[in-house]
Amino acid sequence: MNDDHYIVELNIDEESLPATSPDMLHERRVAIFDLLEENRFHPLESESGPYLVKLSLQENKLMFDIQRSNGAPRPSVSLSMKPFRRVVKDYFMICESYHNAIRTAMPAQIEAIDMGRRGLHNEGSRMLTDALRNSVEIDFQTSRRLFTLLCALHRRPA
Description:
The protein is of the alpha+beta class. It has helices at residues 22-37, 85-104, 107-132, 140-154, and strands at 7-12, 41-43, 51-58, 61-68, 77-80, 136-138. The longest helix has 26 residues, at 107-132.
């Protein structure tokens, strides 16, 4: 079994990134760092990796431009952002509540909001895994980190 199916480099198209808060910028950087440390990413039509991936948002589609690390191109993957709208909107709302709560709320309230935030993040991650199932196999942790990046691309300037 070939175990080189992972992302070795991930870039986000700068033109796709909206203005964002320092908290979201930090989350994006952490997601990329964690993803590169450990991930499972196997384009189903590819016999071997590792992969260079560029994420972008084009006409309300999340684009995965994929190459092998030796420069050999792989088919790009595109996902409509439409199915993710509700969970992303809810996730942003609860993240805002969480960031406000950590300044003023009691620990039990913060924990409850954080549990809701993680639940929505997991829901979005499962949706992403399902949306990719016919083109790319990913594990749950990779899906969680990619969902964070999907949210970074989806965010609109305030």
